[in-house]
Amino acid sequence: MPKSSSSKIKIMIGSTVYGFPDQLAAICDVIESYGYEAVNSHRGTMRVDPTLSNLENCLRAVRDCDVFLGIIRPYYGSGNINGVNITFEEMKLAIELKKPYWFLVDRDVTFARQLFRNLVPKGDAKNYELKKNHIFDMRTLDVYDYVIKNGEPLETRTGNWAQEFYRLDEALKYVKTQFEDRSFIEEMVERNKTK
User: Fold this and answer.
1) Residues 42-65: pLDDT tens digits?
2) pTM given for the model
3) What sequence ranges are listed for the domain DUF4062 (predicted)?
């Protein structure tokens, strides 16, 4: 039996916005086209308690959602409160709460990770530090490593899939593959509720 609109499955799309609003809107549109409620701060579809901080509101939205879709991008974001990044905290909470979750990762993050892992000093080469810039934030590598559970034995890792994308159509293909089959998502949500 189809769910009424008031009991739609809530899919929270993580709060990564800057330099990405049109792509984020497209992802939300696709999710909504499958009959889900797309919860996203930028889109204005996240309930906000004005007595709470932005971080607290976003974490409450993670607790209230049925499913979480995180997006790891080269920008750490402006949602940083006393060194705490809202987007990263959302991801950590979704994993901790064992929500059904999926992650997209921008190819620039995976490329930078491989590049920086393979840089070694040679001879009199200086140790280089990446200047603060608006092109790439090294902290996003920590987010990616957290999501893929880097450091855990590969053969026992679960829930560590992060789908790389470069273009919007690649991200949308992954979103379609995961969310188009509502019975698959409904089964995961029900299974999660019984845990």
Assistant:
1) 899 999 999 999 999 999 999 999
2) 0.87
3) 10-93
**Over 60: is that where the pLDDT of 138 sits?**
yes
CATH label of the domain that carries residue 165: 3.40.50.450
Give the H or E element holding residue 96. Answer: helix 86-96
Side-by-side strand order, sheet with 101-106: 37-39, 10-13, 67-72, 101-106, 163-165
**CA-to-CA distance for 144 and 139, rounded, in angstroms?**
9
Q: Are 153 and 9 in contact (CB under 8 A)?
A: no
29-54 burial, b at 16+ Cβ within 10 Å, e below that, comes to ebbeebebbbbbbbbebbeeeeeeee
In whole angstroms, what separates CA 101 from the centre of its chain? 9
Give the integer Cα–Cα distance in Å for 183 and 179.
Answer: 9
Domain that holds residue 80: 6-120+128-187
Q: What amino acid is encoded at 154 in this protein?
A: L
Q: Which amino acid is at 53?
A: S
What is the C-alpha separation between 57 and 51, in angstroms, rounded? 9
Which residue shows structure tokens 């089959």? 181
Question: For the chain, how many structural domains are there in total?
Answer: 1
Q: Are the C-beta atoms of 28 and 43 separated by less than 8 Å?
A: yes
